Structure formats: C-alpha cells, structure tokens
Histidine kinase
Amino acid sequence: MNKFRLLQNKKLVYFLHFVVWGVLFISPYLFSYGQEELSFVARRSWVSLLIYAFLFYINYLWLIKKFIFNNKILIFITINVIVIALLVILKHELIFKLLTEDPHFRRPSRPSRSFFIYFDSISMIIPMVFALAFRISERWVKTESEKNEVENYKLQAELQHLKYQIQPHFFFNSLNNIYSLVDISPEKAKETIHSLSKLMRYLLYESNTETVRLEKEIEFLNKYIELMKLRLTEKTQVKVNFPKISSSIQIPPLLFISIIENAFKHGVSATQTSVIEFSMKLWEDRISLFSKNHNFQKSITDKSGSGIGIQNLKKRLDLLYPNQYEYSSEICGNEFIVNLEIKLKTNEFQ
C-alpha cells in the first residue's frame, strides 16, 4: 500500500514538473503573439530556459543530495559558482549568435559586459535556490511521513498488545466462573463451556481486525452476559438495554467488555440480593455505555478483581480516541456506576 502511494506521489511530481516547464516554454509565444520577431524572441527565451532547467536539475537530482545532505556545503557552493560562470559564458555566446543571425532584428546598443554578467549570474541563482527549496521540502515531507509511519506502527503494535491482553484476561475470568459451577451444577458448567467456546471463536477470528461492526460487538456482549447469568442465583437481577443497530457503524473490537466484566466481578454476592444494569445509547456521532452494580468487596485471594481490564480499557481509549471520550466511575452508597461516552470518528460511519 505504501509503495503504491509512493509511486502515485512520484507520478504526480513528474507531472507537475512537466506542466511547469511546459508553461514556461510556451509563454514566449503567448506574450509575443503577433510580433514580427516572434521566432527570435522564442528562441532567445528558450536558450535561457534550457540553461535554467539544466541548472535546476543538476542541483535537484545530484548536487544537493550528494553535497548539501552530506554537509559538504563549501564544495556545493564552489561547483555551483563554476557551473554558473560557464553557463553565463555559454548563454552570452548563444544569444549573441542569435542576434547576429536574425535578419529582422535590429540590435540595440548593448549594456556593459559587467552588467550582463551580473544580471545573468543573479538570475541563475534563482533556479538553484528553487531546486534547494524543493529538495529540502521533499526531504522534510518524507522525514515527517516516515516519522508518522513509525509512530503509527508503534501505536498499532501497542493497541494490538493491549487487545491481546484482553483475551487471556477474559478467558481467566470465564474459567473462574466455570470452576465455581463444577461442584454446584455440572450441567450448567457444561453449558457454560459450550457458550465460552462460541465467545472465544469471536475473540480469535472475528475481532482480529482494527474495527468490527457495532452490531457484532453488541451481539458478543449479549452472549457474554448470558454466559455470566448461568452462574447467577435468583438473588441477582440483570437488566440490559442495548439498542438494535441498523447502520453499519464500525468500532474497535472488545471496547466495552471490560466494563461488563467488572460489573459481574464486583456486583454479585452469594448471600445478598443485587441488581446489575447495562444501558447503551447511540447518537449520530456518539455512543455511550452506562453500567451500575452493587459494590461487593472481593477477597484478597480473588485475583479476578485486579482491575487489569479497566486499566487496559483506559489505555486503549487514550490511544484510539485522544480527547474524544469521557470516562467516569464513582461509588454512590453501595453502588458502583460507570459512564463511558465516545465521540465516533468519521471513518467509523460506513
């Protein structure tokens, strides 16, 4: 993809060079249209343009890369001084020849030789400066592009690392739930393993992309909630209000699962009644997830409440939606409340 983009950029640069020089070579005809000395004016202008083009490209294609970019500035200046001096002499001889050969042109009184040399020397510095400006700007753009590419690669690598952390963490928590069911209800434990296999299939195959359809992600969340409900008793009530998605909005995979996991880790008690609530809302350019659960303290030996999932979520949000999301969590009485609102990117609407 990058090579294709680079090839396109080179073709565009070549095209722009062709257009600019084409306009410069045609302009003498445009400005001298209808004059008797049109042929002479065009030829004299072409001599200057050919010399300027030579000076431009010898710097653009060779001298700047070989000497300026290798900090050999003195050699670069010396070569250009010699080349300009030779071109001034060549231009003087060629134009003088055109003056003497054209029968329709009356040669005016010529300025002093020093003025001629001074004017041509100054004018020939211009294509050299343009070549220097273009080549340095191109190098700057290339350097910035490479820097952005490296930063993007690092970003993608970190995001991939964070996403892969979710899978063993998710699997570990699910195994804890299954373990708690083995002695109490073997049949439910079997059903849970079957449901877990479906969820793992989504984790391994369908979520292995930068974005997934929001519809698929909600389906995954619903299946996970149903899996968690298998181990719950009548003391725990789960309320879910997720929207039905008809549009093809894309979001990063596994973005909300940590909040759902966290609610089940802390909101379930074997002896007390509790309520766990999940609500998702979707606007034109924003999506929000609300979670509320009773806050039961975990024992020190219970590693499922280590908070890795929420830390992971915040890191991913910082990388994916910098300054484009709001995350808040608070304890109100004996309830733990989480609000997450994300401003969707333009490319996530497809």
